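Predict structure. Chain length: 110.
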Amino acid sequence: MSNPIESLIESASIEQLKALIENAKGAIEQKKAGEIQAIREQMVQMANQVDMTPEDILAYSTRKKRSSGKPRFYNLNDPSQTWTGHGKKPGWLKHALDNGADIEAFRIPE
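Prediction complete.
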């Protein structure tokens, strides 16, 4: 062991090592708090450059919200069940088509 910390650990008692661990945890928390404060200040400064708050920036989304689409088909037996025509066919439609139904019979009139 050529590292001074390693030799200190090797020669320390269990109680001394426990105290060292607690002191290290405290030091870590202090450093973390200081770094968080510095980051917070940077965020405020950067947000101010675009006339926003950090909260506004975190809540801001660059992705446009896509609507799920207008329903184009409905279940003849239960009109509350609809399908946009995109994605996987719902079970009620798949079952009807498997039994020979024409998909146009399920189309919602414009």
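Summary: The radius of gyration is 32 Å.
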